[in-house]
Amino acid sequence: MTSYSTPARNKIVDSIGVNGGADWFSLHTADPGLVGANELAGSPRKLGGYPAAAAGEANNTGTLHDIPATSTFMFFGRWSASTGGTFLLGGPLPGTEVYSVAGQYQLSNKIAQGAT
């Protein structure tokens, strides 16, 4: 099994977060898969960022998304641009979010690379 030093783990995390070009966050009504499908209509992507990694992880500074009324979403995505661009990754939110009236959602995300 391969073991990673803390500097190596930081480089891996920085390549995705700080230097990876995936700084635009989206919300999705269902699993975005490998192409960023099911993006929440009416909620533009928001620019977020990551500080340099420490101890093999980095936390995004948070993005505040405007949510249209009657919206339900449960996944997030990361893109290389505010529109179009390349979908790089996505995942589930902690739970399903349901908005009967317009509101805002604070998205935070952590990238971590384990030692093995």
Structure write-up:
- The protein has 116 residues and is mainly beta.
- It has one domain (6-112).
- Helix content is 9%, strand content 39%.
- The chain is built from 1 helix and 8 strands.
- The protein has one helix at residues 6-16; strands at residues 24-28, 46-47, 57-59, 63-67, 71-79, 87-99, 103-107, 110-112.
- The strands form 3 sheets. The chain has a 4-stranded antiparallel β-sheet with strand order 2-1-5-6, with no helix packed on it. Strands 3-8 form a two-stranded antiparallel ribbon.
- The longest helix has 11 residues, at 6-16.
- The radius of gyration is 15 Å and the shape is elongated.
- It starts with 5 loop residues before the first helix and ends with a strand.
Largest sheet: 4 strands, antiparallel
Q: How many helices in DSSP terms?
A: 1
Q: How are the strands of the biggest sheet laid out side by side?
A: 2-1-5-6
- How many discrete structural domains? 1
Structural class: mainly beta
Question: In sequence order, what are the helices and strands, one letter per element?
Answer: HEEEEEEEE
Could you name the ranges where pLDDT drops below 50 across 5 or more consecutive residues?
A: none
- Span between N and C termini? 7 Å
> What spatial form do the alpha-carbon principal axes imply?
elongated
Quick check: average pLDDT?
Answer: 85
State the helical fraction.
under 10%
Strand content: 35-45%
> Radius of gyration over alpha carbons?
15 Å
Give me the count of strands.
Answer: 8
In short, what is this structure?
By secondary structure, the protein is mostly beta strands.
